[in-house]
Design brief:
Elements lengths: L4 E5 L4 H8 L4 E5 L5 H4 L7 E6 L4 H18 L3 E6 L7 E4 L6 E4 L5 H8 L1 H5 L12 H11 L4 H8 L3 H29 L1
Parallel strand pairs: 1-2, 1-3, 3-4
Antiparallel strand pairs: 4-5, 5-6
């Protein structure tokens, strides 16, 4: 199983890039670099993350169709689509196990989207009781960073304070670096 996670960035997001860089080794590419030659699974690929600014339904459908084709034809193990342009129409599309479904959650219901986005923690055997020793809140903060949700937004919608959320993420990263960073990469790559 490869620890290499290739990220397709349709819209440069320095916060997201930094968050992922702190978690895993990855290859950062742009949409223009996406091609069948790149996608072909000669090398094991863990997760592709698309960050799109597509603001129209047509653009989102095109992006979803592209992710489905890549997943079905090239063997990507998991794909998450994150639409960051329209704050009221964010989309989370997970294609774990080559199955696609759309979680449509308005930003006003971010608390609910947090609960939805952490379902991977309960679905994966390594995450049943918190991933590799991480607490629920540490894992939540790490995963939300991974999909690019700003901590200040989480705080606004949940009533938690940013310092507490930042502390959860920092504690989670420090714990992984000291104890389980290699295993964490394997867990992420296995989704």
């Amino acid at each position: 199983m490869s620890n290499n996670i290739k990220i397709v960035c349709v819209s440069a997001n320095s916060y997201l890039k930094l968050a992922i860089q702190n978690l895993v080794d990855f290859t950062w590419i742009n949409e223009s670099d996406l091609s069948p030659a790149f996608c072909y699974p000669s090398a094991s690929i863990g997760i592709m993350l698309l960050v799109t600014t597509g603001s129209t339904l047509k653009q989102r459908i095109k992006m979803l169709d592209m992710t489905r084709k890549i997943s079905n034809n090239y063997g990507w193990k998991g794909i998450v689509l994150y639409d960051q342009k329209n704050a009221n129409e964010r989309r989370f599309v997970d294609m774990t196990g080559l199955r696609a479904y759309d979680i449509r959650t308005p930003i006003a219901d971010l608390k609910d989207s947090i609960e939805r986005s952490t379902y991977l923690r309960s679905r994966h055997p390594h995450c049943a009781n918190g991933i590799l020793g991480l607490t629920k809140y540490q894992w939540e903060a790490l995963w939300l960073s991974f999909i690019g949700v700003e901590i200040k937004e989480i705080a606004e919608k949940t009533g938690r304070t940013p310092p507490t959320l930042y502390a959860h993420r920092k504690a989670g990263l420090n714990y992984l670096k000291l104890n389980h960073l290699h295993e964490f990469k394997n867990v992420i790559a296995s989704f």
